[in-house]
């Protein structure tokens, strides 16, 4: 019986970690529901609340050191739910009047990044990729739609310079905060953050049908990892 004690403690710890992460996601969905039913927020606003809010769960997974298999299982479950939500009104995420698999790709990205960078014991890159997508793309879309006066087209997509500049700035801030926390105030922190921010904005600009939710997080995380290894 004594030999089972550490195992039981480990299982209990994992369930607490899952409970905390699930509580955060539930809070995000509650805020979305309140914004929908009482504030009568626009569908795109609701979508971005979910987009940005759920992205922050990667920080909880990182800080709590949630096992990789939990993150992968959660991403698979989220992927199934989002696919079902395209057919049934399960979540307020696919009601913005456009055909896109973006939310599904978002879930896939989380699973892939957790699988890769948890295995390498470099979870900061998974967090970087997801948060660049969550905050960078999320804020760029909101600013671009509300304040975007200077439009441009690239590969058939309509963008605004205001939105793209927001993407660069927010992505740079996200990368810088993560790198400062992990490796400190060194030149690689600022140079790599700027390169990744510009690359993420380019990937978001040239993507279509929601595939930026796959290309931006995976591209940002991979590029950041490669540049840091290269400049050591």
Largest sheet: 2 strands, antiparallel
Alpha-beta content class: mainly alpha
Helix content: over 70%
From the alpha carbons, calculate the radius of gyration and give it in angstroms: 18 Å
- Which whole number gives the mean pLDDT? 85
Q: Please report the total strand number as a whole number.
A: 2
As residue ranges, the low-confidence spans are: none
Alpha-carbon distance between the two ends: 48 Å
Shape: globular
Q: Count helical runs.
A: 9
Topology as a string of helices (H) and strands (E): HHHHHHEEHHH
- Side-by-side strand order of the widest sheet: 1-2
What is the strand content? Answer: under 5%
Structure description:
- By secondary structure, the chain is mainly alpha-helical.
- 76% of the residues lie in helices and 3% in strands.
- It has nine helices and two strands; from the N terminus they run H-H-H-H-H-H-E-E-H-H-H.
- Strand 1 and strand 2 form a beta hairpin.
- Helix 1 (5-37) packs antiparallel against helix 2 (43-55).
- The N and C termini lie far apart (48 Å).
């Amino acid at each position: 019986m004594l030999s089972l004690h550490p195992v039981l403690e480990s299982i209990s710890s994992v369930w607490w970690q899952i409970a905390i992460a699930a509580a955060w996601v539930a809070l995000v969905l509650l805020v979305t529901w309140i914004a929908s039913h009482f504030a009568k927020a626009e569908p795109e606003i609701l979508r971005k609340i979910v987009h940005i809010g759920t992205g922050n769960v990667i920080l909880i997974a990182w800080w709590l050191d949630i096992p990789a298999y939990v993150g992968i299982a959660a991403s698979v479950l989220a992927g199934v739910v989002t696919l079902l939500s395209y057919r049934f009104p399960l979540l307020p995420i696919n009601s913005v009047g456009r055909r896109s698999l973006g939310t599904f790709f978002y879930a896939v990205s989380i699973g892939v990044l957790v699988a890769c960078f948890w295995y390498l014991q470099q979870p900061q890159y998974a967090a970087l990729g997801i948060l660049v997508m969550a905050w960078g793309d999320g804020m760029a879309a909101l600013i671009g739609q509300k304040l975007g006066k200077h439009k441009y087209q690239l590969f058939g997509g309509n963008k605004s310079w205001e939105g793209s500049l927001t993407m660069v700035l927010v992505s740079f801030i996200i990368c810088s905060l993560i790198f400062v926390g992990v490796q400190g105030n060194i030149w690689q922190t600022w140079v790599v953050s700027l390169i990744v921010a510009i690359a993420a904005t380019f990937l978001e600009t040239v993507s279509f049908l929601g595939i930026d939710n796959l290309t931006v997080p995976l591209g940002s995380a991979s590029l950041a990892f490669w540049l840091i290894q290269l400049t050591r």
